[in-house]
Amino acid sequence: MDIRIQELTKAYNGKIVLDRLTALLPHGEVTVLTGASGSGKTTLAKILLGLETPDSGKVEGMDPTHLAAVFQEDRLCEQLSGTGNIRLVMKRKATPQELLAAFAEVGLTEEDGKKPVRELSGGQKRRIAILRAMLADSDFVCLDEPFQGMDKQTKEKTMAYVKKAIAGKTVLLITHDSGEAEYFGGQGLFLQPTLAQQRT
Amino acid sequence: MMDSISRDKGTIKEKYTGKKQVTAVLVLVFWLGVWQISAILVGHDLLLVSPLDVVATLFSQMKEGAFWSTVSYSFLRIVSGFLLAIVIGIFLAVLSAANSVVKALLAPFFSVIKSIPVASFIILILIWAGSGSLSIIISFLMVLPVIYMNVLEGILHTDKKLLDMAKVFHVSFPKKLGAIYIPGVMPYFVSSCKIGLGLCWKSGIAAEVIGLPTGSIGERLYQAKIFLSTADLFAWTIVIVAVSYFFEKVFLWGLLHFARHLEKGDAGWI
Question: Residue A71 above 70 pLDDT?
Fold first, then answer.
């Protein structure tokens, strides 16, 4: 089902961040959300993920029980291993082979998956956060600047894995990188501070 | 290369630890020496007994069966109060974190407990409950606010971003508890236990000295005072310090072991 955003308004301390935003996120496709800082990209993501309540307007077509996200920050449990963090969000039991294969696709080793996350580098943590979102049981995935902090080679490898993993899912990709936007294709949604407009 | 570096690091660490232990022993010997010399200079056992006399008294008491039953009597009561305070303190902290009305209702109760002198509590409990359960209740009352406030603080400071992540991914409560809440609260809990362990022994023994429950360490301390036996007084003080130190080490070891178990993510929740 398409996700319909209707007349969404959100303000913080009297400052309007989203002003009557209306948009459509087509089912099973990627929507690339771009815009200047402060234009309400993350606020929109938070509303879609159920972490914020809009002041007015509504969102239709979301199943709040099947969501996944890569947040701006990694939001990993630092004391757990990489696999521990992934298993934490999975409703089904992942086989070690499945996890290993996913790790290999983003350039991580079995050893990386066993270490407590706090011992990993920033780029490794980011890939664990991405794997967590990809392997979770979800219909809608929100990716907020998912490839930040990665070198070119790792980024290309991870982007290829993500493109394969999100096939058939409704995805909102927030990015400032035109290369990423082009790679994932789909429709574009451009936000301006307190003025929203959609282009296709 | 890496092996030799880590071997060197290991050797340096061992040397450092060994040096620290030697320093600690030398400091202990120095102060025992000061005590022994002071006792000789004072020249009166009633005012200041020598460390050698204290050790001799301690060993002679340890040979008696009553010694061990006295130690276990006080140990079981004081530790029971401490453990009960942990269970009830955590329970109330969780309730307060979940419900602001409960938190508001409990706030004056804990302020009162914290500000009332322990001696007032001891006399009040003696009137209400008698001396048999006195040290359990006093130990419980002194530790309860410390555990409650620290655990509540820990829960309220749980990483909100991790909780949002768990909400998005629909992580079950048992998993959230094991992966987010317990590791977040653990440093606050360990710190409150360290404070509570010291408090429970000091207040529990003070309660026994005032309430004089039969067969307790407090009663033996009181008898030492009555018979002006400074050696007995010092010997029982050493016993209290040793038992509380031993229990603190074992308890904190268990807690840290549990925390490490959680860190590995193999505690059964994940």
Answer: yes
User: Which chain A residues contact residue B167 at CB under 8 A?
Assistant: 50-51
Contact B165 A71 (CB under 8 A): yes
Q: What angle do CA A186, A47, B174 make, to 5 degrees?
A: 110
Spatial distance between the Cα atoms of B125 and A135, rounded to a whole number of angstroms: 58
Rounded-to-integer distance, Cα B270 and Cα B268, Å? 6
Assign A8 to helix, strand or coil.
strand
- For chain B, the domains span 1-43, 49-263
* Domain B49-263 in CATH 2.120.10.90: no
C-alpha to C-alpha distances, A168 to A3, A28, A60, A164, A165, nearest whole angstrom: 14, 4, 19, 9, 9
Model confidence over B113-164: pLDDT tens digits? 989 999 999 999 999 988 889 999 999 999 999 999 999 999 999 999 999 9
Kindly tell me if the per-residue pLDDT of A35 is higher than 90. Answer: no
Residues of A in contact with B183 (CB under 8 A): 77, 79
Q: Give the residue on B whose Cα is nearest the Cα of A48.
A: B168
Across the interface, whether the CB atoms of B262 and A116 are under 8 A apart is answered no
Give the integer Cα–Cα distance in Å for B104 and B152.
13
Q: What is the pLDDT of residues B238-260, one digit of tens each?
A: 999 999 999 999 999 999 888 87
How far is the C-alpha of B185 from the C-alpha of B193, rounded, in Å? 12
* Contact status, residue B63 vs residue B118, Cβ threshold 8 Å: no
User: CB count, 10 Å around CB of B73?
Assistant: 20
Average pLDDT (B8-30) is 78
What is the nearest CA distance from A81 to chain B, expressed in angstroms?
A: 7
ipTM of the shown complex: 0.91
Q: Is B268 a residue whose pLDDT tops 50?
A: no
What range defines the domain where residue A85 resides? 3-199
CATH of the domain at A24: 3.40.50.300
pTM for the model: 0.81
The amino acid occupying position B24 is A
